[in-house]
Every structure is written in structure tokens, then in C-alpha cells.
Amino acid sequence: MLRFLQNHPFAVEAFFERSLVLTFAVPKEDLQALLPECLTPDTLHDQWGFVAVAMVQTKGLRPKGFPAFMGNDFFLTGYRIFVRFTNSEGKRYRGLYILGSETDKLKMQVMGNIFTHYHYTTSKLQQTTQGNRITTTSASDELRIVVEKGDDTTALPSGSPFADWQEARKYAGPLPFTFTYDKNTKEVLIIEGVRHHWRPEAVKVLEYKIPFLEKLPLSQPQLANAFIIEDVPYYWKKGRIEKC
User: Which residue segment(s) compose the domain that 227 sits in?
Assistant: First the structure.
């Protein structure tokens, strides 16, 4: 029964007040070792794969169609790999594979782990704004990210494999699909997200320390891009299952 509930059995909607995304380039071989069979890294030049850290302030998260007053506000942090999946009929998908998720409220941890496979934990997350500067911290660990709003004249992070911001936006997330794999049934759960007014704006990363990323067996992740997206209506469709 719990397995059925975790398969995202109903659509969910929310309003993203702000989504801050940092994407790191990693040798594709490092990421393949973290992925289940059927999923492969979505690569640049067949060399670099990408891990994204997304910090989202959600408002009114609730089952789709429920009145807004029944929704809840949460701060969420997700750690995801950009991936590709081809189903048994040869149809190709591009999306995300969740490594872990954090939230600022126990209620979201409990409900999130009942209705998804996203591995939620509770963390004392906080995000503050001072002028153009945005600081995200966690009192639960040493997480600290400081960025400053920019524009297309902002330089890409030093060492980024992207040629320019236009290319970097292809890895600004979120992608249309999120995948979970069941190794026992060799099935992939696909959750499709639908968004509006998705306009990623470049930010300059002043400093970052991300303990979750540091614990992964990765060869020196290289900051590749960083974006902020604001005021986005968003919903996730009911999950569906495909054979590998």
C-alpha cells in the first residue's frame, strides 16, 4: 500500500515564489555510478554530466484542484541529476533523478515521504534577502550559499564548461520529467511537471558550501551555472509507470 501511495497517485500544485538553482558539472562516469539501470546522464559534449541543487520557496502546496487555503508553505531543497530515459517502445525523455530532498518543516517530510520517493529530511533551512543579495543557510549543518542577482552580462562561473548563458539555460531546471526506478519490477515512475512564466535569470555565486554534495563520490564538482526564477505557477501530474 505504501508503495502505491509513493507513486505520486494524484496531481499536486504550488506557487514558486522563488527558485534558486546551482548546477555543477561532473565527469559523466561519476554520475552513472549513482544512477539505476535504465537512466543515463544527460551530458554536454559527451563528457560532462550535471548535478543541480535547487532551493525553492513554495506557497500553497496542495493536491491540484483543492482551494488555496488548504495549501501549505514550505522551503524545499532538492539534489538532482540531469538524466535521460528511453522506454521499451523507444520513446526518449529528458528529466531529473532525485538523490535527496530537504524541507524546513516536519509535516512536509512526513507527507513527502508518504506520497513520493524523494527521500525528504527536515533541516533548519532559512533564506534571507538584503538588496540583491540572497543568503541560504541551514542551522542543521554547514550549508551556506550566497548569491547576488545579475543579468546576461554576469560572467559564467570560472571553469564552467558552458560556452555562454544561452547554452547554460538548457541546464537551468526543472526539466519536464522526474524519474524513480523500481529495480524489482524494472519499471520507471515518471512524474511530469507543468510550469508557466519560467524565466531563469543569471546570478553571481559569491560563496557556497553544500554538505550533501560534498558527501557524494564525485570528482571535484565544478560550478557551471546559477539561476534564479521567481513567481512561477507550477503543478505535477499524477505519476505514471513505464517499462524499461
Answer: 2-243
Number of domains observed in the structure of the chain: 1
Grid coordinates belonging to 109: 517530510
Could you tell me where the beta strands, DSSP code E, fall in 124-238? 125-130, 133-138, 144-149, 177-182, 187-195, 201-209, 222-236
Q: What is the largest CA-CA distance in the chain?
A: 52
CATH of the domain at 74: 2.40.400.10
Task: Specify burial of residue 10 (Cβ count, 10 A radius: 0-12, 13-18, 19+).
Answer: middle
Q: 53-105: per-residue pLDDT in tens?
A: 999 999 999 999 998 888 999 999 999 999 999 988 888 999 999 999 999 99
Question: Omega before 217 cis (within 30°)?
Answer: no
**What cell was used for 204?**
553571481
For residue 2, pLDDT over 60 is answered with no
Cβ-proximal residues to 58 (8 Å cutoff; 6+ apart), any chain: 14, 15, 16, 17, 73, 74, 75, 76
- Return the exposure string of 172-194: e unless at least 16 CB atoms fall within 10 Å of the residue's CB, then b: bbbbebbbbbeeeeebbbbbbbe
Any idea what DSSP says for residue 67? Answer: -
Distance CA 50, CA 95 (A): 12
Q: Using CB atoms within 10 A of its CB, is residue 137 exposed (0-12), middle (13-18) or buried (19+)? A: middle
